[in-house]
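haha ok so turns out i had the wrong file open the whole time. this is the CORRECT one, sorry everyone. sequence first:
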Amino acid sequence: MPNQPLTVAVLGASGAVGLEILKLLEERDFPIKELRLLASSRSAGKYQVWKGQDIKILEASESSFEGVDLVLASAGGSISKQWRNAIKASGALMIDNSSAFRMDDDVPLVVPEVNPEAALMHKGIVANPNCTTILLALVLAPLAKHLPLKRVVVSTYQSASGAGSRAMDELKSLSQQVLEGLTPKSEVLPYSLAFNLFLHNSPLESNGYCEEEMKMVNETRKILQIPELPFTATCVRVPVLRAHSEAVNIEFKEPFPVEEARKILSKSSGVQLIEDFDSNRFPMPIDVTDRDQVAVGRIRKDISNPNALELWLCGDQIRKGAALNAIQIAESLLSTL
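then structure:
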């Protein structure tokens, strides 16, 4: 633990993840002597209640980070890049939730239950992985320790929260419009998510994969330290508010007994096993909303490949997929701050 409480700045304090960070800092009694809430000019001047106090949200500036020990940044890649030098000059540790620095060689990409030692190698910045990557890594890592991975195939079912609080609000309002017999028209997402789904709306790359899919590929390889791991992903937006789901096919170098996999995952940190084959009851978004753990279930042999397992997982995108993971990184480094 640190010798004294820290001065902490939350950059992007008015967004969905920023608000979750504030909630978790209070719930987990993170040692804070001063909390600075920073956002764009659009949110500056508003107040946020934290531990019974009204704290004014300030517009981020060069001087915002003076005297700060820790910056929890969740305002998007361009904002993180904009303030990187000012944060570094202040001597603060930046835990960044954007994709700005994740693949930089000198920036650790950390899931504390998987590779906590990587955080100790930071040079002022630690990157928080993509939400889908965090959830997947919690399940892949303990299995990979038992038997080497040969190939991973993932299909994701991603909630509106991944596109921010405005997308969540839009899903609610457009769903109501459909129920009223109206034709929904999306303004936040490219298409209406009300009673609908579509392939992930991040930019397409030259290989035909979208940016979100390639984040999963590259980040998982970095976290697991398997740079050549054969990995493919298909990411889909679905009409769920704040929990992502993933269908995962994992091929190993040799057969992996289902009962052994079940035993390993049931004892893995941050993972909850939900399986009832008799009732066909497995993890659902409602099981993990507002919860820390990632739920996994329906673990079974791939009938097309004797060396592969199939499984299903769900996790809260805002919580473990973003805010909680960042705070856990900070907690793991408290003695160094």
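The domain at 133-317 is CATH 3.30.360.10 (Dihydrodipicolinate Reductase; domain 2).
again sry for the mixup
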